[in-house]
From TrEMBL, chain A:
The keyword Membrane applies. This is ABC transporter permease. One of its GO terms (molecular function) is transmembrane transporter activity. It comes from Streptomyces gilvosporeus. The keyword Transmembrane applies. The chain crosses the membrane at residues 37-54, 66-85, 116-139, 146-164, 184-209, 238-258, 295-314, 320-339. It is found in: Cell membrane. Keywords: Cell membrane, Membrane, Transmembrane, Transmembrane helix. Its main location: membrane. It is a multi-pass membrane protein. The lineage of its organism: Bacteria, Bacillati, Actinomycetota, Actinomycetes, Kitasatosporales.
Length: 344, 318
């Protein structure tokens, strides 16, 4: 990197042109380097094939429909988590903010009789504001994201509990908040509106990351924050925007969660923080920032759910689900390290 | 408290505070972050000892807090367990608890009678898969025993024979479709039920560790269009949960009285601290049983069943 870098230049393509792969390993290495979602995609297909062979119910479209419905909440959060991790950050509070937003939406409708659309928007505003707070603490006070979100994890959880008083809020079907639970049939596949919104979220954020200046700047900041600064990128603005996109993803996740739960429940979604990070890591995005694609995180979330579902169908002790997810995380990070290693 | 996110424990906290005001005692409440957060309970016990409190009321997370409770007793505090007796029961000076095995059993007996001899395909929606908590084991085993199925183990879930004959009601054949963890939450209950249904679409009996798990199971069944043919058996007895009996979401709900346990507990400590005598335990049990009953919209011959409105007169929560 020179100190007078062209702001529009990226480093990766030049590097690839110079190193034309020779051996098979190098060739695989190169392909995986260019397509971060490829290795998780291979794992997903392999897992699906193995589980189909073990249990003939696995491949049933009815079952596959369920798996994608089960993944919609974590999948949505994982979009936000990916964007934040791409900046070499991390968000431990993402699930806590989602539970807060989902309870707020439900309570505003059930207890305060707000119109559904307004309650939904209020939930989204709170989610984005909460994430803006995370972003400001990271950029203005220069605290490490891990510490910031560890703190706000407790803060947002506490606010949720104080607000909810431990009560569950049930909503009536027909409310816009419950719209995400409505089923859409595509042939034999039964999806929900929630799944479709999640896919739309992936499309929009995926496009923005790949084809807009914002997306390029985000990768640049995650790859080398000093180089990005010297290249004239407003680093703080990019970081703040990453957390606020996280807030948008949380709002979508909260909406889908309300549909799945049938209202607000302070106990539902409690494991979502780590599950979203797991999905991102298995999906091939580097925890060190700057490398990965948002679509990989959807595959990562699907891999986890396919294992949970497949092992449940095979009647295997649920503890093995946890074991399998742990092994997947270690394997995914190992592959990431190998791909990042300097080519010989 | 185990947590302050679960309305069951929130109700305990509320009634304990009311009673504390009546008895003119000061009450400090501590709770874990999640169900099973043992470390936070141990810290809270140590804090109570150093504060010089007169007594501790605890909904114990399990054996891991026993050593801390023994330290408290040595320091002269009265230890009263609520909701679940510690193991062994002597760890606490006294336990005000519900008989969780009995609650499960009442549900199971009702389920067997309702089947009327038909084959049962059972989904077991438990609390955890990663830790052994007595309420989880007692309710699960109680339900199986109520159905007339041998749980096959004293301290573990899922050790019963996967198929065979249940002896409850008019008796018949059964299949255990699954044991899945729910974390006692709605989303966990839903995912667990979805996976169980994929594994065995013929499920017609659902045991749910608590009302939220049952609620999630209902959401999953409804999405699959199967809510009419499946009977859900829950345990808790909250006011919101009892409404699910009238609407037909739950076939039966075993009711418990967390507020009563907490109020009795606070009262006992107040009396003991002022030199009063120790309250007695229920005959034949190692704890003071605050009672349980099964409530259902449909009464069944030969079983004592409360109507939803009878049960609602003593329900907890909103």
């Amino acid at each position: 990197m020179t100190t007078h870098a062209d702001p529009h230049a990226t480093t990766a393509p030049a590097e690839e042109l110079l190193n034309r792969p020779a051996t098979l390993t190098q060739r695989i290495h190169s392909v995986l380097h260019r397509q971060p979602a490829l290795s998780p995609a291979i794992v997903l297909v392999l897992a699906a094939v193995v589980f189909s062979l073990v249990n003939d119910r696995f491949y049933a479209l009815q079952n596959l429909s369920l798996v994608i419905q089960q993944v919609a909440v974590i999948g949505s959060l994982a979009v936000g988590q990916t964007v934040i991790i791409l900046t070499a950050g991390i968000d431990l509070s993402i699930g806590a903010v989602m539970v807060l937003a989902s309870l707020l939406m439900s309570k505003l409708v059930a207890d305060n009789h707000w119109p559904g659309v307004v309650a939904l928007l209020a939930g989204a505003v709170v989610a984005i504001a909460a994430q803006a707070l995370n972003g400001l603490l990271v950029t203005k006070i220069k605290l490490p994201p891990f510490i910031v979100t560890l703190g706000t994890l407790s803060i947002f959880t506490a606010i949720t509990l104080i607000y909810a008083k431990g009560q569950t809020i049930a909503l009536q079907p027909g409310n816009i908040l419950m719209w995400t639970a409505n089923t859409v049939s595509l042939g034999q596949l039964n999806l929900t509106n929630g799944v479709l919104i999640m896919i739309a979220l992936y499309a929009v954020i995926g496009y923005a990351l790949r084809y807009t200046a914002w997306g390029r700047h985000l990768y640049a900041v995650g790859d080398d924050v000093e180089a990005a600064r010297l290249a004239g990128i407003s680093v703080n603005r990019v970081l703040l925007s990453a957390y606020m996109v996280g807030g948008l993803a949380i709002a979508v996740g909260a909406w889908i969660l309300v549909g799945r739960v049938g209202g607000g429940d302070p106990n539902s979604g409690l494991n979502a923080n780590l599950q979203s990070i797991t999905a991102v890591v298995i999906g091939g995005t580097s925890l060190f920032g700057g490398r990965g694609v948002v679509f990989g995180s959807l595959i990562g979330a699907l891999i986890v759910q396919v294992f949970v579902n497949g092992l449940a169908l095979a009647g295997i002790d649920p503890n093995y689900q946890v074991l399998a997810v742990g092994i997947l995380v270690i394997a995914a990070v190992s592959v990431d390290q190998w791909i990042r290693s300097v080519k010989s | 408290m185990k947590t302050l996110t679960n309305p069951y424990f929130v109700s305990m906290e509320k009634d304990a505070k009311t009673q504390a005001t009546k008895d003119n005692v000061s009450l400090t409440v501590a709770a874990g972050n999640t169900d099973g957060d043992t470390q936070t309970q141990i810290t809270a016990i140590d804090n109570a000892i150093s504060r010089g409190d007169k007594g501790i009321l605890i909904t114990t997370n399990g054996d891991a807090v026993n050593a801390a409770l023994n330290r408290a007793k040595q320091a002269g505090l009265f230890v009263i367990a609520l909701d679940t007796a510690p193991n062994p029961a002597g760890i606490a000076n006294l336990t005000y608890a519900t008989d969780n095995a009995q609650a499960g059993k009442l549900d199971g007996q009702y389920a067997a009678a309702a089947l009327n001899g038909k084959p049962a395909v059972i989904a077991m929606l438990d609390l955890f898969n990663n830790q052994v908590v007595s309420v989880d084991i007692n309710r699960d085993h109680g339900f199986l025993e109520g159905m007339g199925i041998n749980p096959g183990s004293k301290g573990e879930n899922g050790k019963e024979a996967k198929s065979g004959t249940y002896s409850g009601g008019k008796s018949g054949t059964y299949t255990i479709a699954c044991h899945q963890p729910t974390q006692g939450a709605i989303d966990g209950g839903r995912t667990a039920m979805e996976n169980c249904l994929s594994a065995n679409p013929d499920i017609n009996v659902v045991y749910a560790i608590n009302e939220p798990a049952g609620e999630g199971a209902y959401n999953a069944l409804k999405a699959a269009g199967k809510e009419k043919n499946v009977a859900i058996y829950a345990i808790d007895g909250s006011c919101a949960g009892l409404k699910n009996l009238t609407s037909g979401e739950f076939a039966a709900d075993a009711v418990q009285y967390p507020g009563k346990m907490a109020a009795l507990g606070v009262d006992s400590i107040a009396k003991l601290a002022r030199g009063g005598s120790k309250p007695s335990v229920t005959d034949g049990k190692s704890f003071h049983d605050t009672g349980t009953a099964v409530a259902a919209a449909k009464p069944l011959g030969g079983l004592t069943v409360q109507t939803p409105s009878q049960a609602a007169s003593a329900c907890w929560g909103n």
